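Appendix B. One record, verbatim.
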Amino acid sequence: MTTEPRFATGILCFDGRIQTPVIEHLRSRFQAPHVDHITRPGAVRLLSGQLDHLTEDLLADVAFSLDRHRSTQIAVVAHHDCAGNPETDTRQKGQLREAERLLTARFASAEVIALFFDPALGFERIT
């Protein structure tokens, strides 16, 4: 009997400074050796406002990860000093809460978490 590889899904900014820390953190947190990264500049911004074609495209990518790789866990991640979403950390944390609500409603069968990353402080779970 072969075991399928475990996947988790990360939605995050395409900023190269956060790619490695996010993948390492999600592998550990979710006990998943593989992480599908869905990246957009300031991705959390797209998930915290009015739905438009960019948001729907991003959500279609998430659905693909869940369907094709059988991911059951989603992390939406924002970060300090984001050029794609130049908001304060406090505002981004609010956006993360909104994004988590949207993702939980859209993908009810998945575990959804929101994380904020500051290189000086590490990861913070936003609830």
